[in-house]
TrEMBL record:
It comes from the Bacteria. InterPro entries: DUF2794. Pfam families: DUF2794. This is DUF2794 domain-containing protein. The lineage of its organism: Bacteria, Pseudomonadati, Pseudomonadota, Alphaproteobacteria, Rhodobacterales. It comes from Marivita lacus.
């Protein structure tokens, strides 16, 4: 008789990093304001093994203008949240998502003539 080997689900299935509901509320709040201002038009969410990414697009077929990333492995170093520009440059990194997203809110403020 053959012996039955149980599946090891915890070791074989990789965990995915995802945004929590409160984190998505913060991101979608600024996203809504930028859409209302006519700056952004589309977004995409990717949940990968090591990172969750919220990508912001001006048009659907373009490269993302900004990527908001969550990397839990960076929690104890520079912070798990980052805003990355179209050229790959890290615009802001930190432990508090609201503070990191402030770099995008500056784009919303315009001079009124």
């Amino acid at each position: 008789m053959n012996s039955i080997t149980p599946f090891q689900t915890h070791a074989s299935t990789p965990e995915q990093v995802a945004f929590h509901r409160t984190e998505l509320n913060e991101i979608l709040s600024i996203y809504g304001r930028m859409v209302a201002a006519g700056e952004w038009r589309d977004y995409g969410i990717s949940t990968l093994r090591d990172v969750a990414v919220f990508s912001v697009f001006r048009r659907t077929a373009e490269n993302p203008l900004y990527r908001i990333e969550k990397r839990p492995k960076m929690r104890n170093r520079q912070g798990q949240y980052a805003v990355i520009g179209i050229d790959g440059q890290v615009l802001k990194r930190g432990h508090d998502l609201r503070m990191v997203l402030r770099v995008l809110e500056r784009k919303l403020i315009r001079a009124v003539e």
